[in-house]
Amino acid sequence: MATPAQIENLRKTATGIRINILKMLNTSGSGHTGGSLSAVEILTSLFFSEMKYRANDPGWEGRDHFVLSKGHAAPVLYATLAQAGFFAADELSSLRRLGCSLQGHPSCVCTPGVEVSTGSLGQGLSMALGLALAVRLDQKPSRVYVLCGDGEMQEGQIWEAAMAAAHFRVDNLCAIVDNNGLQIDGPVAKVMGIEPLWKKWEDFGWGVQRIDGHNPEEILDAFATARQIRGRPAVIIAKTVKGKGVSFFENKVEYHGVAPSADELKRALKELEG
Amino acid sequence: MSSLKLTPRIVRGDCLEKPDPKALRDAYGSTLVKLGEKDRNVVALDADLSSSTRTSMFAAKFPDRFFNMGLAEQNMMGTAAGLAKGGKIPFASTFAIFASGRAWEQIRQSIAYSRLNVKIVATHGGITVGEDGPSHQTVEDLAIMRVIPGMTLIVPADAVETGKAVEAAYRLQGPVFMRLTRAKFPTVFTDDYEFQIGKGTVVNEGEDLAIFACGLMVYHSLQAARILAEKGISARVVNISTLKPLDKDLIVESAKKTRAVVTAEEHSIIGGLGGAVTEVLSAAFPVPVEMVGVKDSFGTSGKAEELLKYFQLEPGDIVNAGLRAVERKK
User: For residue B47, what are the CA distances in angstroms to A203, A214, B44, B63, B93?
Assistant: First the structure.
């Protein structure tokens, strides 16, 4: 159980990461704002409480693994990895620039701490499953975490992987769905409905939890519960708000793939820095 | 009396008289078991075709290291990528059309772009799949695998080369796509043959014409060379079993020596071996090139030998292409 002080620290870290996301997106002039902001608490809870890793040795054998299946949320991953010490924070300003290590979508070839390359939706869960099987073959205690988008649930490969992970009784795998309810063309429910999502996962044989994806306490509790699930994989459906933390970005479908302007950045920082 | 100049020691001197046909996929299955015995990091995946691809041999021996992924090729490639990231050496198998076509983007994104150490060994390539017809045949796989950056693409000529190529693929760090077939192929090579990724092999020496071939077409090219010899044309036959990285030096050297070229493949003439050879020669040493292959069409049902005739992939077709190429250099 995390102490109130630890939770408070996570909240502070989350705010810092939000600020860095907005700054890097404004500098690059393009990138995915809404879906990065919705996943901040999830990544913060993973990297600053739940997961074991060594930032100075990303390939460390004993590490837990993380796959960002919703690769367009690269800014939140980069800001979190920088905060965790995988690379210097000043590299964040090079996002999406020619020759930089921070590609528009995560690349394991370019960026320390990124374990597999993602960006084409639907593929991360399969890779996480493969990692989980490798870890199990080696009888290591490591766990594998994978963050998916809710729009991503429309990809058929997700359900191929969901079926297989349950079939192989993989219980060192924990998927998190960033359930912000919006995708590029509009509300997920309008574009291509996925509900009842929890029931789909349950029917596929996963241990399902539903939480508030912006509450670090609930997120950490869910990870702890997931660790106790035996003989099947765990999925956490995290209800989130797209654009979370900046009032004029929240629940705005227009900010899926648009970076904040200088004026928007100024107003956003005012809100976040209080 | 053969008037061929077969490369001694590595090519069976009596291969044209005694074809000794063997299944490439059997060589794959048994070699994979050997690798599994040697290295516990070798794992295998299949998509409900393990008895056809022969990964069933590995599955029987190492059930804990075999994953039947069911009819889900995209997830199979992604899972293989994850296993590779976790330090395993996965061999993923299914039919060539489903491996290369159904899961192309997973191979591109999850495997090749991530530079992961996944070996895709696809069986039932080409048209010699036979009766199952165009849905299960593939004349496009070499083109769509060759275009992926960093992919190593291998098309063995016989069972001997298959075993050696599977071992070489295991030793290589990085993604590999290997195309095998359903049909048995005559055995060209002796056990003394040493396969090297990226190296072509002269299997018959000649001065008037160079025939670059892969897969079954290597044997057909030797048969063609014998017929051409009777017509007074000596053909150098080169096995290009690695389509990528391509042995450019050997291709250019052969073109300079003969000044007339034929390419032969059980694949579309678009984007495969013919495409690869002409890409090199058009820049380095332009000479007349005639392509033997499937001419921009899907396959069709039939027996393998009927299909080879129907699609003009027989030795006689290579002879005709050779005559045209030689005529064009005059």
Answer: 22, 39, 11, 15, 7
